[in-house]
Amino acid sequence: MAREKLEEPHPVDRHVGRRVQEKRLDLGLTQTALARAVGVSFQQVQKYEKGANRVSASKLFEMAEFMKVDIPFFFQGFHDAQPGVGEEEAPGFDHEHKPTKHSVEIARLAPRLPARNQKLILDMMREMLGEGADKPG
């Protein structure tokens, strides 16, 4: 049965869509290039990336092959806030911050910097956001 259009996208669909977008941007692909590779329109890729439409298992498989990642890649970082025995409540993945080309590139380049430079950049970003530079990290 189809979902009602008024319903918000499921958190897993949004997460998978964001991971598709992050990997696409990381590879320097356009939505059109990804769409052609998996046989859908670029508008459909937009809907996948927003989580508005679910990615079918077959399309997820085709995307994984095209982008040369394993299928679990698309689910990495998603944590449903349902702790097991002895586990503390953990916050779920933050879906509110849409990745951009710049944020994906920052995330890709940062690990290549020495730890001291990573901390300097982190402090600068926190200062720019008004969060202070001395938060633990």
From TrEMBL:
InterPro entries: Cro/C1-type_HTH, Lambda_DNA-bd_dom_sf. One of its GO terms (molecular function) is DNA binding. Residues 20-74 form the HTH cro/C1-type domain. Coiled coil: none annotated. Gene3D superfamilies: lambda repressor-like DNA-binding domains. This is Helix-turn-helix transcriptional regulator. It comes from Brevundimonas mediterranea.
